[in-house]
Amino acid sequence: YPFLNSDDFSVGAWLSESGASMATIDRFLKLPFVTKQNRLSFRTAQELYTKIALLPQPPKWLSRTVVVPGGTSLEPLTLFYRNGLEVFKFLLANPVFSGKQNFVPQKCFDEGDVVFFDEPTTAQHMWEVQVKFTSHFLI
């Protein structure tokens, strides 16, 4: 949603990112090759941009100025970030990522028994959450 499938989305994304004007996109969408295929959910540039506006929007960027006492930077540092919980909700709700999320806890080892963490699924918290959910959803 709001596109029919990944091909519909891909063509729409390409057209919107191509830099083509709305008139040029309309001309492309009226080509016999495109109209005979009848595989797109939009017939005009306006319809395409209306669909794009319906796509879930990512969380906004936030910033915070950080001063490190005793640090070597002459000026304060600006840290840019997004709210992690909002990003998580966005990814879960976004149909583009449907069925592509991995919530299986993992333990990753680097050269022997040294554990390393690089994804949310490698965190100890994922194991704790898995235990809680497993006990509630066993069949």
From TrEMBL:
One Pfam family cited in the UniProt record for this chain: Plavaka
Top-rank taxon: Eukaryota
Stored InterPro entries: Plavaka
Name of the protein in question: Uncharacterized protein
Species whose genome carries this gene: Schizopora paradoxa
Lineage of producing organism: Eukaryota, Fungi, Dikarya, Basidiomycota, Agaricomycotina
